Amino acid sequence: MEIFISIVLFVLIFGLIIFLHELGHFLVAKWQGMRVKEFAFGFPPRLFSRRLGETRFSFNLIPLGGYVSILGEDEDSTAHDSFSQKSPWSRLKVVLAGVTMNILLAWVLLTVWFWIAPFAPKADAVAITAVSDGSPAEEVDLRVNDFIVSATDRNGRVTEFLTDVSLSEFTAEHRGEMIEFLITRNGGELKVPVTLSSDESSPSLGVSIADLGEQIPAVPWWQAPWYALLEMVSVTLLTLKFLGDLILGLLGLVDQAPGVESVSGPVGIFVFLRQTLALGAPFVLRYAALISLAVAIFNLLPIPALDGGRAMFLVYEGIFKKRALSHQTEAWIHAIGFALLILLIIIITFFDIQKL
Hints:
Elements: H1 2-31, E1 36-52, E2 55-70, H2 88-116, E3 126-131, H3 136-139, E4 147-152, E5 158-160, H4 164-173, E6 178-185, E7 188-195, E8 207-211, H5 224-250, H6 266-277, H7 282-300, H8 307-320, H9 327-355
Antiparallel strand pairs: 1-2, 3-4, 3-8, 4-5, 4-6, 6-7
């Protein structure tokens, strides 16, 4: 039953995020006088569709996606209401409308999150957000998204962890000792013995952790939007730093950088949703908000096939009054970029499955 609820919530959350993203493209395209040929929820095969005016509205089988097809978007068209005949700035508005909707959704959900606080999660624990290579944690197969509940030392004394500080202090005090950690993974409990590092120059356990047992401070409803905005800025900066470190690591420019295995795909995001549900329903709001924000950040990256990549070409055209490349060449670049993104998702999914 728990898995069924998780699957339904996963589809609903991603469905809402994708629907609003595509709705943004659709509404701004209509506002800019463009002809929208199709508004599709999900990826083919098509289950059913209906034409209203000049637009066909389709509902497809695979719910983890969607698209808006605009006349002249992928081909040259001389029609006055085609995408290609509009100014670069009009086209840029359409391209950026989807991520704008995702950012607004994240802001609204986080505003509600701060408004309904304070509340405490059902599980008093800290979550593992990263595991260092060669660390004691990696040797015993502690994983990202595991929850550390408590630890038993060699004297049989049990210590529960409510904050990252309490865990850090505990591991520092017990360097070189064998500790039995109680963790939860995928809804089940595990006891994992770990010998902490005695080397003062290296982490005793080797994990990055996040608080999940602290009570969220209450804020008045009129301050909640501001707190939500600050949270979004903080998460965005941390995400960009992570991506920067990831790229530098892949290029071999820095040591101890996160690898591709540190990135979560659909499987990893689903696993994290199941763990979020264990904390209580309100935490699903935060989960959905952060996923929506992550979708916006990802789509804004200047990578071909993404909104950010398309925006990059349009900004060039708007400034220099000419296309950077021919329409056909740009279309090929976006097609290649899309294929590489699919390959990346497959690789990330492979690593996600290995973590299970």
